[in-house]
DNA sequence: CATGACAGTGATACTAATACCGGTGCGCGA
DNA sequence: TCGCGCACCGGTATTAGTATCACTGTCATG
């Protein structure tokens, strides 16, 4: 086995992350935020919609920064944020 | 153009992240920390050595959590952590 | 109604992340 | 010296992330 497909739990976690980001974006447009963060609008849209469940670390950092979000706060709002559970979830 | 290769700056940023994680790991073994974080030791080793410059968000979160690191603190120790620069760097 | 900005979708293309395997080298205790 | 554990590397295999493009739908405004 080499590079196991993402589990359902992992995808759901991605959706929660996406929702949190979208909520924080509030009124601003996707294009606006994505451009400021240095990523393409499509990518941000996919992250927000949960279609990219495990985005790159620095991508999330850039978006959170543009939105004025603290990463720690962002994570706290996701629930289920203790160590192994973050990476293992329903494996 | 479709999925541009990582720039040198991005790779260097990855190396800084890796060094920070390795420093925080202190005496513990890679195997120990990786197992607790729910990832393979190889992956953690590659991240620490900078051979995975942009690891997945939740992977970093899991490792930081095991090490008792705050993500915000971790980032602060990386330097060059403002918005667009995080994702754009030398693009 | 026409136009334009934004959101959403699906396809395509290419690189990156991750896991597993086999092998190497080092230090330490039996 | 012989294991043994740990770190490291290179290769292989597979999925995921990201960008670009080409649509469609909606809604406000001219």
Automatic annotation (TrEMBL), chains A, B:
Q: Which GO terms describe its molecular function?
A: DNA binding
Q: In which organism is this protein found? A: Jiangella aurantiaca
CDD domains registered for this protein in UniProt:
HTH_XRE (cd00093)
Which residues fall in a coiled-coil region? none
Concerning PROSITE patterns, the annotation shows: HTH_CROC1
Q: What is the superkingdom listed in this entry's lineage?
A: Bacteria
Name assigned to this protein:
XRE family transcriptional regulator
HTH cro/C1-type domain residues are 19-74
The record's annotation in InterPro entries points to: Cro/C1-type_HTH, Lambda_DNA-bd_dom_sf
Query: Which SUPFAM superfamilies does the record match to this protein?
Result: lambda repressor-like DNA-binding domains (SSF47413)
């Amino acid at each position: 086995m080499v590079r196991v497909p993402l589990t359902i739990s992992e995808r759901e976690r991605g959706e929660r992350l996406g929702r949190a980001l979208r909520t924080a974006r509030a009124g601003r447009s996707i294009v606006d935020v994505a451009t400021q963060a240095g990523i393409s609008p499509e990518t941000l849209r996919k992250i927000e919609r949960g279609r990219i469940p495990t985005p790159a670390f620095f991508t999330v950092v850039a978006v959170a920064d543009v939105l004025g979000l603290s990463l720690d706060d962002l994570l706290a709002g996701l629930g289920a944020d203790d160590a192994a559970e973050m990476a293992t979830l329903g494996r």
